[in-house]
Fold:
Amino acid sequence: MAMLHLPIIVAIILLFTAMASPVTASDNSTTPTAYEMLEKYEFPRGILPEGVTGYVLRPDGSFEVYLSRECNLHAAKMQVHYSSRIAGNVQNRSIHGLEGVKVKMLFAWIGIDQVDRNDDQIYFHAGILSKLFPVDKFASSPQCN
Structure:
């Protein structure tokens, strides 16, 4: 009886593996880039730095984005650090549970845990702190230092 279910189990495993497989920069050109996926969720591409090598986007909205290396940059008069792996959950105009992005405030690095878009403003949340910026400040992806 268990042998009858084996083909179904294998098919389910293959389906889930295919759904969660990473997309790399060298994949088929019809596959959207991580930057294009941001735009589909109504975020500007400039909230991710240049250098994305691939990403995983699951049906539930959870994602992982991979950079070729860690990235430090200055944006909006602030120091920002991106890990080589950024993860979270995306919905239209909202990213929550964000991991891998920090901003330096005074002498401490604080993780940005949520990003929301409201009309032409983007809100970055770091714990109880939040800061808003015009969307057009993120029209293009910044370069890492």
The first helix runs from residue 2 to 19. The two ends are 60 Å apart (CA to CA).
